[in-house]
């Protein structure tokens, strides 16, 4: 199920601020060299992440799920000049593509990659963070949320991707369907945050720490 029709998505993309050329280059390489290039967040969600980084004045941010770096570049672009985004992934191969494009972007030095199972890397980090983005293995979402929310400052924001899972949240069948349903229920009853589940792209849970 398309959450939003492709015509409306196209219209929204056409009415959203243009991207720096490094993103076109990154998309080209990702489509040529990886098996699931559609995992990239793309222009709409990327510009939204950049805007959130600007609105929160993000100086420290954390990401789970670097892949080839589209979302990391987007967030880092909106962060303060001295900002630092720590981005986590388990896959060094896609990370090499990410790093090559971080090196090309004028703001890319704000991004630091960490390789390994995200839950272990998170356990070794300490806050406070201003902004977080989670876009990785769906079975880990509750654990990532529980690790990250206490590290966000009051007023800090966490965004969790794919939370409508192509509409399968309404009729879950697979383990990943059920993981997203369980995550949304977990986030929705968390008294530490105010949250909204947006129909942008594949669904984004956006929450602000009280
Ligand atoms: C949907 S992609 C992220 C896309 C990225 N946000 C972008 O815009 O290009 C999910 C990523 O999560 C990573 N991942 C999956 N399981 C993980 C784990 N246990 N720890 C860390 N990263 C993991 C995968 O290697 C993959 O690169």
Please supply descriptive tags for the structure shown above.
globular, Rossmann fold, 7 strands, alpha/beta, 41% helix, 8 helices, 7-stranded mixed sheet
- The CATH topology corresponds to Rossmann fold
Proportion of strand residues: 15-25%
Instruction: Summarize the helix and strand pattern as letters.
Output: HHHEHEHEHEHEHEE
User: What's the pLDDT, averaged over the residues?
Assistant: 97
Can you list the strand order of the major beta sheet? 3-2-1-4-5-7-6
CATH architecture: 3-Layer(aba) Sandwich
Largest sheet, described in full? Answer: 7 strands, mixed
CATH class: Alpha Beta
Structural class: alpha/beta
Molecular shape? globular
- Poorly predicted runs are none
Round the Cα radius of gyration to an integer and report it: 16 Å
**Helix share bin:** 40-55%
Q: In whole angstroms, how far apart are the ends?
A: 34 Å
Helix run count: 8
CATH homology-level superfamily: Vaccinia Virus protein VP39
How many E-type strands?
A: 7
Q: Give the ligands present.
A: S-adenosylmethionine
Instruction: State the domain count.
Output: 1
